[in-house]
Amino acid sequence: MNYLKIFALFSAVALQSCVSADEDPVPAPPITGSVVEVKVGGATEPNQVWIDLSDYEKPSVNKRTDWDLGFYTGDGFHVVINSSLAMTVAKVPNKTDIKTVTEADVATLKGSIMVGTFDPANMQYIDHPDGNFLTQTSGIEPIKENDAENPVYLLNLGRDIPSSDNIGPGSVNLSGAARGWKKIQIFRALNGYKIRYADVGNTTSYSEYFIPKDTDYNFTFFSFNAGMPVKIQPKKKNWDLGFTTFTNEVFTAPGVSAGSYFFADFVVTNTLNGVGVYQVTAAGNLDQAYNSFKLGDVDQSKFIFNDQRALGDKWRTTTGTADNPQPHVYADRFFVLKDAEGFYFKLRFNTMKSEDGHRGTTNFEFDPL
Length: 369
Fold this sequence. Notes:
The chain is mostly beta strands. Helix content is 8%, strand content 33%. The protein has three helices and 20 strands. It has helices spanning 3-16, 103-110, 286-292; strands spanning 34-38, 47-51, 60-63, 69-72, 79-81, 88-91, 153-156, 181-189, 192-198, 207-212, 219-223, 228-230, 241-253, 256-269, 276-281, 316-317, 328-329, 333-338, 344-353, 359-368. Strand 11 and strand 12 (228-230) form a beta hairpin. The longest helix is centred in the N-terminal third of the chain and has 14 residues, at 3-16. Residues 1-21 form the signal peptide. InterPro entries: HmuY.
């Protein structure tokens, strides 16, 4: 629990002592809001930034390439891939021994399991973008109790962060060199998981590591480069918003999927820990609509708790409009957020570019309700 919420808790206790037994205590929200500069890192957007609105001055920042897999720490055994690198994964047919998988076994898969092919079938190779990995039928299937039932997977490690930030105004460059491939196999272990992994061409050996569950976090993250678990997201109660690149579903027309696609300037919400968001569209002047919005205006029926893309890309346009052809922040909307501890906030975005027009410089403001 951070300092603003600690203050709120003591405030609530103090207030409760001043009211009679017939009166309900009044909850005390965090004290004040602020303007937040999000350190995404420029037009290659190298960073993932995790922010708790009640402790916004202490964001957690990591490179997108710092991790590869996330191992769920709750009930059940589920594994996610790194969406911020456009990673994909597919089951190797008819294989249950990682050492027997060869390049010949995966040659056809390598031509299919990638992002941005504009084929709806490639959705099966990613985690479902809504974040509901507990029930998804794509990506890595739930880890079985019987070791023999856990298949070998081919993992496309996606794209590296480009080394150069020499990118024109209004543009991004998210995809550097291909990071290669791994074959992996995952099993259950006591209070955790066991992973085996190797380069595809290695048919004589593999690396093996035990990955523990730590229930203070949503996931235990693992890096092949480090060869061990790494800290990425803050503790599950200590973040509301994640600023990141993102593998999403794209549509050519309403209801017509074109499969997976890689997005810049994306914001996910911590739905796994009960954070909800909804959009408010201003009928007139945005400043007036935002400033006048109070706690009593919150519409509980509009909160989205089951899709981490509830804020997503809805705050900006990357293609521009007829009046403003450059990428820009929408000037007709703001958002309402409810965090896991029941505090409410309103927030709106001010910029997605630096003063010289370069992407990857995000600024938003928020106020508690």
